[in-house]
Amino acid sequence: MANRRLGATIAFLRDHVLVDLDAGDLVLATAVRHLAAVTLACLPNSTTDEEPHRTDSGDVGGATLRRAIAFIEGNAHGDIGLADIAAAAYVTPRAAQYAFSRHAGTTPFGYLRRVRLDRAHAELRTADPGTTVSAVAMKWGFAHPGRFAAAYGVPPSATLQDADR
């Protein structure tokens, strides 16, 4: 099962992400993080720790979440990962996950994705003529136009057309 998952991930990245050599830095960085996460999940290694650390399992407060959210909102345009978010909130990565789960009903990456979608939407609303949906999606880390459109909720091209009026 793990072998198939790793193979499917590599095939997806090869066929859908790496085919576009002009993919933005954010898309490529996200692809690398995804490959690393799947590789660690599928292959034996010493980084797994099934039991959360006692210090991580305590209830983290709203201050942790506020620091993490401020970091995400200030750095959504860049290549950030869970370790970066946790460091900015002065907690472990697991504690950052707990904070988002308990107090925001999402994950750190779910929140980051929402912020990036909001920024892409704002950019499409104020886009200059000639701007493409694909270029905006790629800039905000969305490599697959169909998945970007699905996550966006409405056809992104409609927002872009409204900006032209």
Structural description of this entry:
The chain is mainly alpha-helical. It has helices at residues 2-17, 25-42, 54-57, 62-75, 82-88, 93-104, 108-125, 133-139, 145-152, 156-164. The longest helix has 18 residues, at 25-42.
Features:
single chain; 165 residues; mainly alpha; 68% helix
The residue-averaged pLDDT reads 81
The total beta strand count reads 0
Succession of helices and strands: HHHHHHHHHH
Query: Which oligomeric form is depicted?
Result: single chain
Helix/strand-derived category reads mainly alpha
Number of helices: 10
Could you estimate the helical fraction of the residues in percent? 55-70%
Low-pLDDT stretches: 51-55
Rg from alpha-carbon coordinates: 18 Å
What general outline do the C-alpha atoms trace?
flat
First-to-last CA distance? 51 Å
Report the sheet-strand fraction: under 5%
| Main sheet overview | none
Layout of secondary structure:
Elements: H1 2-17, H2 25-42, H3 54-57, H4 62-75, H5 82-88, H6 93-104, H7 108-125, H8 133-139, H9 145-152, H10 156-164
Helix pairs in contact: 1-2, 4-6, 4-7, 5-6
